Amino acid sequence: MKVTFLGTGTSQGIPIIGSDHPVCLSEDPRDKRLRVSVMVEWDDYRYIVDCGPDFRQQMLTNNVDRVDGILFTHEHADHTAGLDDIRPFYFRQGNLPIYGHKRVLRSLEKRFDYIFVEPHQRYPGAPEVDQYEIKNNQSFKLGNLNIIPVNVWHHNLQVFGYRFDKFAYLTDVKTIDTSELQKLKGLDVLVINALRIQPHISHLNLEEALALIERINPKKAYLTHISHMLGFHAKVEANLPNNVFLAFDNLTIEI
Ligand SMILES: [Zn+2]
Question: Given pLDDT bands bounded at 50, 70 and 90, which one contains residue 119?
């Protein structure tokens, strides 16, 4: 399995528009972070988790010519705002499968109503999707793999993480119920969000992320959904435990 980090930044991305913060001005390419998303590939399958405002750029940078579907973690704009840019895939492949909690699918329907209208009402250039509702404690098939949704909390908003075999992707976590932790046993790689050094109401900070990684105990962990306030990539990564890494845009890992 191959995982590509399409974006590793928090909701505004790094640099932030108009910011003169030293991390926003950094010349280290690892300090430039598009909005969070990963591409997961195995055998002949290719799925993407979340489709934020940088989706088009992420597809172009990685020369992606086909996707089998998009999984959504939750409805916030930094995870969904790029949905219109599935059009090239729709024109080439037909209806694109999308997966998410019922609440997330309904939110997309409201905000992208022209995608969800009946075929006879649809503007000819609009894309079409096939919707798949994800329910907690119900695994589902993508290709030949059983995917396990993992329920986490983003302050008081429900968010799904996804486990693909020995790989799990959790973003926008603040808390996780103890009962969900058993779904994360025996991982080779865990990706989890770490926003910044200071605590935040709806995101794990670095200290909390490291503590949760210790409880889950994967072989390796990568941090994502990073704000400029976490600091410079090189400096932060130098102080992480041996099996924990900072993800950066376009990093690929083999699992
Ligand atoms: Zn987010």
Answer: confident
Residue 211: pLDDT band (50, 70, 90) is very high
Q: Tell me, in angstroms, the distance from the centre of ligand 1 to residue 11's CA.
A: 5
Nearest to 36 by CA among 217, 161, 142, 180: 161
Q: Classify domain 2-254 at the CATH topology level.
A: Metallo-beta-lactamase; Chain A (3.60.15)
164 Cα: distance to centroid of ligand 1 (angstroms): 20
How many whole angstroms from 123 Cα to the centroid of ligand 1?
Answer: 30
**Which residue is listed with tokens 């928090």?**
10
Q: pTM for the whole thing?
A: 0.97
In the chain, what is the greatest distance between 2 CA atoms, to the nearest angstrom?
57
d(CA 64, ligand 1 centre) in Å: 23
Give residue 77's Cα distance to chain centre. Answer: 12
Residue 131 region, left (φ>0) first, then alpha (ψ -120 to 50), else beta? beta
How far is ligand 1, taken at its centre, from the CA of residue 118, in Å?
30
Q: Separation of 203 CA from ligand 1 center, angstroms?
A: 9
58-96 per-position pLDDT tens digit: 999 999 999 999 999 999 999 999 999 999 999 999 999
Q: Determine the Cα–Cα distance for residues 217 and 156; give it in Å rounded to an integer.
A: 25
